[in-house]
Amino acid sequence: MVPISYYLVLAAILFSIGVAAFLIKRNIIAVFMSIELMLNAVNLTFIAFAHEWHQVSGQIFVFFVMVVAAAEAAVGLAIIIAVFRARSTLNVDQIDLMKL
Amino acid sequence: MHLALFFIFGALCVAGALNLLLQRHPINSALSLIVVMSSLAVLYLLLGAEFLAAAQVIVYSGAIMVLFTFVIMLLNAGKEERTHGSKMAYVAGFPGAAILLGLLTFIFVSRRGSFGQARLGEYVVTTADLSRVLFKDLLLPFEVTSVLILIAILGAVALARKEH
């Protein structure tokens, strides 16, 4: 028997680590991986609440998040390859053409 | 039993996530993210999400992470170097994430009376239950996602293609 709040706190820890990694990492692929970590933390919250209220819809949400994450990963990695071809670097500090 | 499994795989999740944060080489980060996703699949199973646990292993730690490691090896990504901008991120990143964690934990712990307990096998969503909702009530959104995936494949091919 585990309280649902334990699962929610675990998801909060994972999400915060994802936020910290997103801000601190300098490699564009590592930044992208921390976004996936945050998506996974939110998925855990959805499933915990689905268990709490005995609703299937929480799990349906997770299913759609997974589908969108798969599409996002494919397009994002293609953009990373295109950026690497154009600038031959993966450091986010050197990819700042749109910065004011 | 449930508590022990939760703590073992929860600790694995947090350790993998911290390793992702601390490793300098992207391939080490990718491998620790696979550990996080696989342990999350076990936690999904503990919460009675059978289909999603299988989908987590197949889609996330299978397909998506293979894509990531493939791109890391294709681009021959090396260790990330420290630059001036990353010092700003250290100053803003760690306190910001700590404040977020503190706030979320405070809310969840102070409201723990209104949340119930998760018992093993008390509420299990089988694949049949999930697909009944997905193919009856949510048939149109499900079909739209297939169009989304198709567009994503075309976009990925168009972006990653070499221009002549």
Quick overview of this protein structure:
The complex is a heterodimer of chains A (100) and B (164). Chain A has three helices and one strand, in the order βααα. The termini of chain A are far apart.
Task: Show the helix and strand layout.
The complex is a heterodimer of chains A (100) and B (164).
Chain A: E1 2-3, H1 4-24, H2 28-53, H3 57-87
Helix pairs in contact in A: 1-2, 2-3
Chain B: H1 2-22, H2 26-46, H3 50-75, H4 84-110, E1 117-118, H5 127-136, H6 139-160
Care to describe what's here?
The complex is a heterodimer of chains A (100) and B (164). Chain A is mainly α. Chain A has a single domain (4-94), classed as Orthogonal Bundle (Helix Hairpins). Chain A has 3 helices and 1 strand; from the N terminus they run βααα. In chain A, helix 1 (4-24) packs antiparallel against helix 2 and helix 2 packs antiparallel against helix 3. Chain A is elongated, with a radius of gyration of 17 Å. The model of chain A has no long low-confidence stretch (mean pLDDT 90). Chain B has 164 residues and is mainly alpha-helical. Chain B folds into 2 domains: 1-77, Four Helix Bundle (Hemerythrin (Met), subunit A) (Up-down Bundle); 126-164. Helix content of chain B is 77%, strand content 1%. Chain B has helices at 2-22, 26-46, 50-75, 84-110, 127-136, 139-160, and one strand at residues 117-118. Chain B starts with a helix and ends with a helix. The mean pLDDT of chain B is 89. The chains are: A mainly alpha (100), B mainly alpha (164). At the A-B interface, strand 1, helix 1, helix 2 and helix 3 of A face helix 1, helix 2, helix 3, helix 4 and strand 1 of B. Strand 1 of chain A pairs antiparallel with strand 1 (117-118) of chain B, so a sheet runs across the interface.
